[in-house]
């Protein structure tokens, strides 16, 4: 039989073990809660992403496509002090989503930075809004032995690892996601077409194309007032453009990333009219919720050769100027040939046929309908078709344009290269192909 003292001892042991179990469970739950989950979606080209985990000093390269793939893992070193960076000299590595904006090679670097360095866009627009400062946050190599938490705020790798990383980095496109520790990454298979994100992007497009100053401003968070002095100029310009042509705003290669602390979308933007499509650079928007709706909290634009910032002249104004500039016959012919080749390569027979005159005759005397039937049969024969051009020249004679170029053709069975001339005539105000000569 158990004596009273033995019961007390047994219950004491059970209580101690139970308390240890509760502490372990709470610690595990706390650790799980501290991990950051990421949502990613894309529309267009696949992309790489780099994740830096400060707590475990690891850098991971991911391929973002329909199935998330871990491509490389490297040990790394971050700032000597823990936590998020807030000010110059605090020895901390910032947490957030950043982009590489350039590259320095060893000949331009002090030995401490190793074989190469990639500067990041810290502080980005969201950091500046949150009163964070500091500069020169880089991904770089090191000529010293790599040890944990050895930097002043940068992310350091072994020289051979930073050299390997180079092949996965695309300036201003590959996100560098810096977190304390990564939880789960969820790839949204389709860009969220019914989400508040897609809604605000659509409303932004519509407000620029036909809306008012107030329509555009309603999409921004009250804590962020974008520069809007350009609006009245755009409104006058827009009125002039739509007198002669229909305009369209297009967003390409959308890339959306959301973490517990921030979410952003990145996309290339184009303004197109009847005969021109003008690239307006790459836009980066940070979002925050306000009254249950997604709102733009910060906005940055990068032109083809520039940094992330809001340019002095808004890109929509610059693009509008191009649309108002009369198109030369050479530009019109070049646009037609590019679109014709694209439709041919995609085997889009309806689009392909739309570039031909109703009076078209082939070199062997085929009518337009016969020619399209012949091309449709060839399309079904090959798995793929790729057609490109080189060295385009143009001359005008009477009411015709003679457009000549080297045509490079390739399918899954053979490839060829030949000099081709397209003879164009106007039909209902547009240039159309009336003859093909090889």
- Stated plainly, the CATH topology of the largest domain is called L,D-transpeptidase catalytic domain-like
CATH architecture grouping of the largest domain: Beta Barrel
How many angstroms separate the termini? 108 Å
User: CATH homologous superfamily of the largest domain - what is it?
Assistant: L,D-transpeptidase catalytic domain-like
Helix amount, in percent?
25-40%
Give a count of the beta strands, DSSP E runs of length 2 or more: 19
Strand-residue proportion:
25-35%
By DSSP (H or I, 4+ residues per run), the number of helices equals: 10
Notes on the structure:
Helices cover about 30% and strands about 35% of the residues. It has about 450 residues and is α+β, with helices and mostly antiparallel strands. The strands form four sheets. The protein has a six-stranded mixed sheet with strand order 11-1-12-13-14-15. About 0% of the residues have low confidence.
Q: How would you briefly describe this protein structure?
A:
The protein has 438 residues and is of the alpha+beta class. It has 10 helices and 19 strands.
Topology:
Elements: H1 4-34, E1 36-43, E2 47-53, E3 58-64, E4 69-75, E5 96-99, E6 104-105, E7 116-119, H2 125-129, E8 138-140, E9 155-156, H3 159-165, E10 175-179, E11 182-188, H4 196-210, H5 213-217, H6 231-242, E12 248-258, E13 263-272, E14 277-290, E15 293-302, H7 315-324, H8 329-346, H9 349-353, H10 368-381, E16 385-397, E17 400-411, E18 415-427, E19 430-437
Parallel strand pairs: 1-11, 2-10, 8-9
Antiparallel strand pairs: 1-12, 2-3, 3-4, 5-10, 6-7, 7-8, 12-13, 13-14, 14-15, 16-17, 17-18, 18-19
Helix pairs in contact: 6-7
């Amino acid at each position: 039989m158990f004596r009273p003292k033995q019961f007390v001892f047994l219950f004491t042991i059970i209580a101690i073990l139970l308390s240890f179990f509760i502490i372990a469970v709470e610690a595990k739950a706390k650790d799980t809660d501290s991990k950051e989950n990421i949502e990613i979606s894309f529309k267009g080209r696949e992309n790489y992403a780099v994740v830096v985990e400060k707590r475990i000093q690891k850098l991971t390269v991911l391929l973002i496509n329909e199935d998330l793939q871990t491509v490389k893992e490297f040990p790394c070193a971050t700032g000597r002090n823990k936590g998020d960076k807030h000010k110059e000299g605090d020895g901390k590595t910032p947490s957030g989503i950043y982009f590489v904006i350039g590259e320095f090679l060893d000949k331009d670097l002090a030995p401490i930075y190793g074989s190469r360095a990639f500067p990041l866009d810290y502080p980005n627009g969201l950091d500046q809004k949150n009163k964070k400062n500091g500069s020169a946050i880089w991904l770089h190599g090191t000529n010293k032995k790599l040890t944990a938490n050895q930097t002043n705020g940068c992310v350091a790798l072994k020289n051979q690892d930073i050299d390997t990383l180079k092949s996965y980095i695309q300036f201003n496109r590959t996100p560098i996601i810096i977190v304390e520790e990564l939880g789960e990454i969820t790839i949204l298979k389709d860009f969220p077409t019914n989400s508040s994100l897609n809604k605000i992007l659509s409303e932004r497009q519509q407000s620029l194309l036909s809306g008012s100053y107030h329509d555009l401003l309603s999409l921004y968070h009250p804590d962020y007032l974008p520069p809007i002095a350009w609006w009245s100029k755009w409104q006058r310009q827009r009125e002039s453009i739509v007198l002669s042509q229909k305009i369209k705003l297009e967003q390409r290669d959308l890339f959306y990333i959301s973490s517990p602390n921030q979410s952003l979308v990145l996309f290339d933007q184009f303004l197109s009219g009847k005969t021109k499509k003008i690239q307006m650079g790459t836009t980066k928007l940070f979002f925050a919720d306000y009254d249950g709706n997604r709102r733009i909290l910060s906005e940055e634009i990068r032109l083809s050769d520039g940094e992330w910032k809001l340019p002095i002249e808004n890109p929509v104004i610059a693009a509008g100027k191009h649309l108002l500039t009369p198109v030369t016959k050479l530009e019109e012919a070049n646009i037609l040939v590019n679109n014709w080749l694209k439709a041919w390569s995609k085997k889009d027979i309806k689009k392909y046929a739309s570039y031909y005159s109703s009076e078209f005759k082939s070199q062997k005397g085929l009518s337009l309908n016969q020619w399209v039937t012949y091309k449709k049969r060839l399309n079904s024969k090959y798995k793929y078709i790729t057609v490109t051009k080189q060295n385009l020249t143009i001359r005008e004679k009477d009411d015709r344009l003679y457009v000549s170029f080297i045509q490079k053709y390739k399918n899954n069975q053979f490839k060829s290269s030949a000099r081709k001339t397209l003879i164009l005539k106007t039909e209902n105000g547009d240039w159309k192909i009336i003859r093909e000569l090889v």
